[in-house]
Amino acid sequence: MMASQGFEERVRTACFAAIRQRQAVHGEVLPVEVIREPVVVDGEAVAPFLLQRGIHKPRQLDAALAVTTTPPKQGVDAPYQDHFGADGMFRYHYRDPGSTTARSRSQADADNEAVRHAQRRSLPLVYWYGVVPGRYRPFYPAYVIADHPETREFSLDLTELGARHLDDLAADAPSRAYRAEIVRSRMHQARFREAVMRAYQHCCAICRLRRAELVEAAHIIGDADGGEPVVTNGMALCKLHHAAFDRHILGVRPDLRIAIREDILAEVDGPMLLHGLQGFHGQQLGVMPRQRRDRPSAEFLERRWEQFRAAG
Ligand SMILES: [Zn+2]
Fold first, then answer.
1. How far is the CA of 270 from the centre of ligand 1 (A)?
2. CA distances from residue 278 to 7, 112, 241, 249, 268 in whole angstroms, order as listed
3. Residue 3: its pLDDT value, please?
4. CA 230 to ligand 1 center in whole angstroms
5. What is the pLDDT of residues 207-227, one digit of tens each?
6. pLDDT for 80 beyond 60
7. How far apart are the first and last CA of the chain?
8. What's the gap in Å between 106 CA and the centre of ligand 1?
9. How far is the CA of 26 from the centre of ligand 1 (A)?
10. Helix spans in the chain (H)
11. Of 68, 211, 225, 287, which sits 20 to 30 A from 6 (CA to CA)?
């Protein structure tokens, strides 16, 4: 069927709104069960995501609605190594036929054509970045900005800045590298967060709070100080303890004991200060990753401890 331009757009608007709402509840990275829940537009149920296909064009549409990269499976890379091109844009590989049959070739061609269709009509889509098996970080609105038949790839703009931004992208070459860096960093941070949360079983390392919505992945050596998004540079901390750690109100000694800054220890206030901060002074961390290779690096802890002492 030929979908009207209006319908193509309404589906996209509805999908983006649904994803935004689901992220407000579940966080930035969404589980498969949450994202495959259909969105209803003009009485039609449209799935915003399809697990088995890299390129997703719902039957009611002419243009692709979503493209997906599979998460790496325990040390094995995804079937396509997606990367950034010389233009600074994220490169998404064409769908290859699953076999040599004519049917399989024509399915692959139709899927690739659906992506070109989105490009020609400047229709935004969702790029689902596989973080870990079963969990995806959506980038939207994503735009298809170029087709590279020689390498069988599409260039996607994943900066989430919207259509108006496409003209400056063409004009503004130096900032393209910077924009690629933003996208790459979002991808790395998503993987970092998942790895840290998993290693600490979704609990705050200080107080053991296990409410996932209130627990974050903290950097031991901050981004700005060259700290890398790797699990040995991370700790899961609840929002209070993350903020206290970042502001050097709370420190972690290299022997994994918690320290509260001296002036904070002397303060008198209500139960939150008493139990939430002062009470942890001198205690051992509440949670440590079971796997030794996931534990905080001694070198990063030393460096961070020096920063804490300098702040006190
Ligand atoms: Zn906590």
1. 17
2. 58, 59, 12, 10, 10
3. 66
4. 21
5. 999 998 899 999 999 988 999
6. no
7. 68
8. 54
9. 19
10. 5-26, 32-35, 102-120, 165-171, 174-199, 239-246, 262-266, 271, 298-311
11. 68
Closest CA to 140 of 2, 28, 290: 28
Q: How far is the CA of 228 from the centre of ligand 1 (A)?
A: 23
**pTM for the whole structure:** 0.87
Torsion of CA 17, 22, 27, 32, to 10 degrees: -120
Domain boundaries, the chain: 5-192, 202-311
pLDDT one-digit tens code per residue, 55-73: 999 999 999 999 999 888 7
Q: CB neighbours of 203 closer than 8 A, spacing ≥ 6?
A: 209, 210, 215, 236, 286, 287
Distance from C-alpha of 133 to C-alpha of 124, rounded to nearest angstrom: 25
What residues does the ion ligand 1 have nearby, CB within 5 Å? 204, 206-207, 209, 238, 241
- Give the pLDDT of residue 312: 78
pLDDT at res. 74: 63
User: 233 alpha carbon to ligand 1 midpoint, in Å?
Assistant: 18
What does the block give as tokens for 174?
């130096």
